[in-house]
Amino acid sequence: MQFEQQITLAQQELSRCGIQSSNSHPISFHLLHWGGIKMPLPHYCSFKTNIAVFTAWYSLLFVIIFFIAELLSNSSIAVISAIITSLFAGITAGVSMAAYYHYSAKRHALTPWQQLA
Fold first, then answer.
1. Where are the domains of the chain?
2. Whole-prediction pTM value?
3. pLDDT tens-digit series, residues 29-60
4. Most buried of 14, 39, 70, 107, CB within 10 angstroms?
């Protein structure tokens, strides 16, 4: 089965469960799909995969926020401090998001990705 067909079936199943499109297809996964990476929606990904994707996304987001804040303020932020803080915040957000999607998939008894047909 084609990846696009699986995505369509997954979105239909999520819609039937009452999960909104903005929740089922977050911007991080939109960017991955736009970049040509064929990855299941987060409700259908493994817990570890979701941790990796969301940790990377939020860490990058927090680094950008720190550097913009540094540019706009008169005080300087140590680069290593900004990176470590961003990684910690990204890991925290990544684990939280992965836990949410894992719990949501279990609660709605979603079909495993490989069985979508």
1. 3-115
2. 0.87
3. 989 989 999 999 999 999 999 999 999 999 99
4. 14
